Amino acid sequence: MTYAGGLVPKLDTVVRDVPHGSAFIDSEAQLGVFRTRFRKVEAVALDQGQSRDLINRLAKEL
Question: How far apart (Å, rounded) are the C-alpha atoms in residues 44 and 20?
Answer without folding.
Answer: 30
